[in-house]
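Fold these two proteins, one after the other.
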Amino acid sequence: MILHDYWRSGASYRVRIALNLKGITYERATYDLRTCAHKGEIFAALNPQRLVPALEVEGVILTQSQAIFEWLDERYPDQPLLPRDLMDRAVVRAMAAIICCDIHPVNNLRVLDALRCELGADSEMVSAWIARWIAEGFAPLEAMIIHHGGTFACGNTPTIADCCLVPQVFAAERFAVDLNPFPQLIKVAQHARTLPAFGAAAPARQPDADPQ
């Protein structure tokens, strides 16, 4: 199993956490997104969308983190990433979708590059853009975690919601977003970070990470 990856990619970070929670051993093939290494023909032949993550397994390339989560849970049912309760499963999927569909896509590298290069946004404008969409997504997540959360985002077991939340908090911290309005969200993210599966997936722990 090979994870096509970039150390600071939030979507790749999610999948690393999920693989670690499942106890799955995998190799990494890394692409520096800053130098457009993922846009080369070799990677394009594997993933025509030219985005990470892509999970190469059993002769198939799986893309999109949420689809990879679902495949992992069906292929490796031990240490499930979704709760048993039907309603809780829907809540967890909704939490993950807020991050994967509403926050992350408008703040990923290609969108930020378009803001800078095509629309002339300066660093202050880009930072304001990032903070806006993170806050708009974190506000409902905070309310959902207050209602459904325990030690983790939903209940007392890590799920795909936590796999998505921790990388998004990392991104918020990286861009100095004010997280004071979201105390319960931060509490469960900090707790998740204490687990070895989350710690081993952290960007700074990856071999291709920038020297600190």
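Now the second one:
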Amino acid sequence: MRRSGTVSLMKKFAALLLTIASFAYAADDSAARKQELLWQKLEHGVETLDSGLDGVMGVAILDLTTGREWMYHANEVFPTASTIKLAVLTELYHQQELSLQGKTGAAKLTDMYTVRKEDLAPDSAILDNLTPGVTVLTNRDLAAAVVAVSDNSASNILTNRLGMARINTMLDGLNLKQTRMRRLMMDLEAAKQGRENVATPHELVLLLQAIYQNKLFRPELTQDLLNLLSTPKSSSIPRLLPEDLKIANKPGELFGVRCDAGIVFVPKHPFAIAIMTTYDRDGRAAEQTISQVALLAWRLFDTLSVSSEYGRAMAAH
């Protein structure tokens, strides 16, 4: 009888545990469903913005905490404009990593360059104002000019020093087959021949994820590159977001093209985002659309970062 009573008690205890687990599962499932509604609202908001854009837009968002991806025309190939410089900067830090590993022929951040008049390209707000044959810069100085004012001369010099083929090989190593650097900045003849710099929004966020996850270089180099990309600049992603929010991004623009891609460091919930537009009839309107899409994404991640599983805000937005 005693054994029978013990067995009965154990069965009741097991049933109680199953009931508790069922309630917990139901609560988790309910929380997941409510969060899914937030993502659906984001989708609706982006679709609404896209319907008002006189052009074509693609968006990719990647949750760097969970790995969740949200895509909107994100595998379409777009011209990158200066956003391709993100690949140039990544390869610079990749070669710095290789040099630290003792590999020969790799560029270093500290390699020196003397400004030459023949290297200057249009839209180079910094290098155009330096003295050829006198001013000496490091590769990292050139990278800073690329980020701060998207200096085309600095970008071209780095591309030639790194090697365009090696930039594309780095992208191949990350399986980013649609992101290609095919010409230097302001090479209009190459563009007319179809040698355009291109990418997809999806591949740009995957490149940002690879940087964030230290896949190409050690953490201290990752931190230095992200800090560099966080330099205040004229760009669309940060425009409507809190001023104190860290955003590591690289915008780009050409006639009919506006792009921006970066990491938005929402506390406890950072995300990567790439927004690309083309066939734009109004560049300023396209920039405003990019800013509004970034605002929608930030609101979602900011809400998730401060909320409990039930949606209660546990901290101020």
